[in-house]
Amino acid sequence: MKIEKCLTIDRFISLHFCEKFHLIGGSALRKNLTVSILTLSSIVCLLWIIGLGWVLVDYTNQPAEKPQTTNTENQKEIEADGVHLLALGDSLTRGTGDDTGKGYIGYLKEALAEKTEEEIKITNYGIKGLTTDKLAEQLTGQEIQRQTANADLLFITIGGNDLFQGGQSLTEIEEDSISKLMEAYSKQLQTVLTTIRSINADAPIYLMGLYNPFNDLDNRALTSQVVRTWNNTTAEICANYAQTIFVPTYDIFQQNVQQYLYSDHFHPNKKGYQLMAERVASLISWEVNDNE
After folding, report:
1. Where do transmembrane segments lie in this chain (predicted)?
2. Which of 38, 63, 153, 266 matches a 20 to 30 Å C-alpha distance to 291?
3. What percent of the chain is modeled with pLDDT above 90?
4. Residue 232 neighbours by CB distance under 10 Å
């Protein structure tokens, strides 16, 4: 559009001076007219070039669009952070009865290490003799809540002390007393799981079922029935919470129970804990993207 305008102005100037040339006449006038036309044409073209130059400068000086980038530094920090395991519960979480001190949590870490190159970190809050109501109370602490919020996987052993009470409740089994114990346990277990889910809604929870350490005694049929009923109640409660998996252990100790128990005839020994770890490890799987 600017080029066409310049040519139109140039044509107008030429015609205007040509009319004057014919009216006045003379070679001197022709010479002066030629110089004037060339001068004006040069000025017009110079102005056109300057205008074009400003257009080009304005175009080339526009800021370039910034490329989209991902925060690779933060991504690397997350990947390098590893997998956080939080272990809660009683003496089984603590590893009582294992001469190595690992317990099922320690052997579980070894099993999971074969599935990923990420670092596996364990925070163990296991307390010997812990009951379900005490676990619910423990979960009100600020630090354990922070650990719960940061956990990728949670593991719980609880209920054995509620039921067995050092073996006293199964010495003389009374249906009414067992029912009361189970009712109190069920209420407290729901409190525990509700609290955990209010802090961490997504991390899978693996709750270990009970085995019967008295399976070799004369009343094993009755004690086994009590333990199975207890486990069924626990499994039903777990089913009401997302990503909460009940892990059965009863069958592991069902045959040759003394082969897998410590010298106290109550806690698992090294082999017993290893079998527990294998059981829960078989239920855990996740995709590891080592190339990301």
Report:
1. 33-57
2. 153
3. 59
4. 12
